[in-house]
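Researcher: I'd like a candidate sequence for this fold, 138 residues long. If you have to choose between options at a position, lean toward the conservative one.
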């Protein structure tokens, strides 16, 4: 049920999923799907829900995940409602194509139409972005 959205991912995509904040019974990604996502994208996931097989996922080099929690059991009482459509992650609406900036402390979604402008006009806290950062493409 949850592999078909992964089939259409491409290099550089980030898999963003609304698991409605469920930790218990909300493990939408385990080591098999995590490996499949990483193989397709080279990236990881943003999941407003939980994962299982955390140690196996940690062992995937360069796989990153921002999740609500982890639980050893499979998900239940959940059905996919949409694919490649706007979703809510907590109280934030995320659109397909948004740029994801994720750190251990949190996640920022930047609307695609604002990303380039933000990079070219916004500076780092207390200073301008260096030339290498300005040349980075998303």
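Model: Candidate sequence:
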């Amino acid at each position: 049920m949850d592999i078909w959205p992964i089939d259409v991912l491409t290099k550089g995509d980030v898999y963003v999923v609304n698991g409605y904040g469920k930790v218990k019974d909300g493990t939408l990604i385990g080591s098999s799907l995590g490996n499949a996502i990483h193989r397709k994208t080279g990236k990881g996931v943003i999941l407003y829900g939980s994962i299982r097989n955390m140690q196996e996922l940690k062992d995937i080099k360069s796989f990153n995940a921002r999740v609500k929690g982890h639980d050893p059991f499979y998900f239940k009482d959940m059905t996919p409602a949409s694919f490649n459509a706007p979703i809510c992650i907590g109280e934030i609406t995320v659109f397909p194509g948004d740029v994801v900036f994720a750190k251990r402390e949190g996640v920022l979604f930047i609307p695609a139409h604002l990303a380039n402008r933000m990079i070219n006009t916004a500076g780092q806290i207390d200073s301008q972005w260096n030339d290498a950062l300005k040349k980075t493409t998303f």
